[in-house]
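Researcher: Here's a chain I'd like modeled. Treat it as a single chain, no partners, no ligands.
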Amino acid sequence: MLTITQALAAEGPLARCVQGFHGRPQQQAMAVAIERTLDENGVLICEAGTGTGKTFAYLVAAVLSGKRVIVSTGTKNLQEQLFHRDLPMVRDALAVPLVGALLKGRANYLCLQRLNAHTAAPGQLMPEVNADLALIKAWAGHTVDGDRAELAEVPEGSAAWRFATSTADNCLGSDCPHYGDCHVLKARRAAQAADIVVVNHHLLFADLALRQEGFGELLPGADAVIVDEAHQLPELATRFFGISLGSGQITELARDARAAYEQEAGDVPGFPPLTRELESSLRALVEALAAYAPRIAWDAIRDQAPVAAAVDELRGALAALAEALDPLAERGRALGAVQRRAGELSDKLAHLSADSSEESVRWLEPGAHSLRWHASPLEVADLFSQWTAEQGGAWILTSATLAVGGQIEPFAERLGLGDARMRVWESPFDFAHQTICYLPQGLPEPRDRAYVSAVVDAIVPVLRASEGR
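Model: Modeled as a single isolated chain. Structure tokens:
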């Protein structure tokens, strides 16, 4: 049987099949450490410097292990690269028959229920949104996977996708009339049957909520989880183990409640004004908080009269809508779903508007026309370590940037994994002689709309001067 070091050797199968592949001692050592961790169902946290070849190191170890492995990475672009390029290269070079699956979050898949519901009650939309919806509807008739990446004609940021995809809030789960044809469910079933499943970190964390959504779970059938770009985990864990509420969720609730009412309870008087009152109270809160953009601690403004009054008004409007929906929930699936959502959002708002505690902090991110409200734990170590222990199996966390002063312990302690095996492999590159560091001044914040253009403007002259090297 082929060994790890043979597979990654200078004249091994990877070198023969992958153009530009070179055997690297650091890569082989990393793969051997991962192999041991997979065999022992242990936990390994390792930093592999740029140029180590960590992707091939963990893929080779995963493929040769014969275990069912979930590989998680930081972005959808890296996820696509892993699944469509790197994994096939390793599989073909090693001549190992395996089934891979690419699994994305639900917002990446067509929702037939949402699309059909909007078609039945289209409302008033901008012409470009209606044009995109027409393209989506035509595509919906022949797509097999329902992955919105297939439909390049409709931009990823098009508002039309809100009417053709679902969220955890508005998904009907097993109550959906299209449950048997659900593209999200099909993708998850394919993942359950695969040997290696490629996901991103957001979906990895969302796994904890899948049972509540009616889709079961993703991880229990896996023997191991490999997390690339693991430096993102502490921040993501802080967000995931907290609570968040966005103005878009409330706006969408009001819109969906009106649509459900028109379809299933149009004979009941007095309901539509409640949805308009909810939208009006939300606008009042957004206006009251606009001066505090881009972020403000909740405790710093909670006692200010305009803010307190606007929050009370929103809580009252949300409670009134939830109360009005209670007797209507039995009229149909859509009304039942919005009734549950109204109750859940009301509970979230009550939690977020309470006092901060010693264990958590609450803050807001106001915008000119939007708002996000957060409550996050100050420490995630116990929560994260409990999660990994409950899932069981092997866990490998890797990145090029984990260590501080050559030590991984600070990162490990933040995640409650102080007992994990830890390793650092230096980059094979001679940075002192092979690189130049350029730090442009005056760039906007990464979240700023002008950020990408500013970065391009800063980089292009350097690329031209260096001739791309």
